[in-house]
Amino acid sequence: MDGNILDLLVSPEAWVALVTLAVMEIVLGIDNIVFITILTSRLPVERQPGARRLGIGLALISRLGLLFGLSWIMGLTAPLFEVLGQEISGRDLILLGGGLFLIGKATHEIYENIEHPREEEQETKADAKRVGNQFALIMVQIIFLDVVFSLDSVITAVGMAQSLAIMVAAMVLAVGVMMAFAGPVGDFVQENNSVKVLALSFLVLIGVLLLADGLGQHVSKGYVYFAMGFAMMVELVNMRRRRKALKARALAAASSAGGADDGGT
């Protein structure tokens, strides 16, 4: 650690680094929140908030674990073997596995959400009897993706800050914000089917980026975040238009029913 805690507390540069890094960690955690929300939606409603909080708490543990194991992370960059002229390292294997899993999982959820919405609801109710096993399976999947997502988070933290204390504080702050907003975000995604499909599409794109990164072709997540942000804005406009159309139809139906009653009397 460069300097003691008191020096960091009175240093404007340290506070700027803390706020900047915390914001970056929150942005990088968006995909994590979406993934945890989608996975926990399979649980009974009363278990979902606790599962979300536990999933995000595990994300903090994995980030801090990787942060304190920097030497291990650096060792992951050493080439293990070569495929078609491309050197593959341990980090690349983790990203490739995470990308394939994310694409497969999100694609399956899109299919179930669109083709079998009623069957999915019935399955969720039936699975309430085996919620313990289901909960454990979901947590295993969350832990695996937490590690994959944490690689980006930790690498970004190391590149932006030189103090371990600042990096730890920023991660704790970011996870606290994520935990505070995970409930409203999760409920909003679950209540709006079109937004859920959009979120799953976002996860597919993140999976593609992980695959590309694992193959040595780094693409900034900023492009995906901008595209999904724009798509979300369009969807919010469409949701507002649909609500207004439903309200107008309800008013028209009420007026027509009132006119018919007046005519009948």
Write the layout of secondary structure elements.
Elements: H1 5-9, H2 12-28, H3 30-40, H4 48-68, H5 70-76, E1 79-83, E2 86-89, H6 90-115, H7 117-126, H8 131-160, H9 164-191, H10 193-214, H11 221-264
Helix pairs in contact: 2-8, 2-9, 3-4, 3-8, 3-9, 3-10, 4-8, 4-9, 6-8, 6-10, 9-10, 10-11
Structural overview:
It is a single chain. It is built from 11 helices and 2 strands. The chain is mainly α and 265 residues long. The chain has 2 domains: 5-219, no CATH class; 221-265. Strands 1-2 form a two-stranded antiparallel ribbon. A hairpin with a 2-residue loop joins β1 and β2 (86-89). The chain is globular. The N and C termini lie far apart (85 Å). The relative contact order is 0.16. The model is unreliable at 119-124 (pLDDT under 50).
Keywords:
2 domains; 265 residues; 11 helices; two-stranded antiparallel sheet
Describe the structure concisely for a colleague.
The protein has helices at residues 5-9, 12-28, 30-40, 48-68, 70-76, 90-115, 117-126, 131-160, 164-191, 193-214, 221-264, and strands at residues 79-83, 86-89.
Shape: globular
- Spans of at least 5 consecutive residues whose pLDDT stays below 50 are 119-124
Q: Output the structural class.
A: mainly alpha
What share of the residues does DSSP label as strand, in percent? under 5%
Spatial arrangement of strands, main beta sheet:
1-2
Please report the number of helical segments. 11
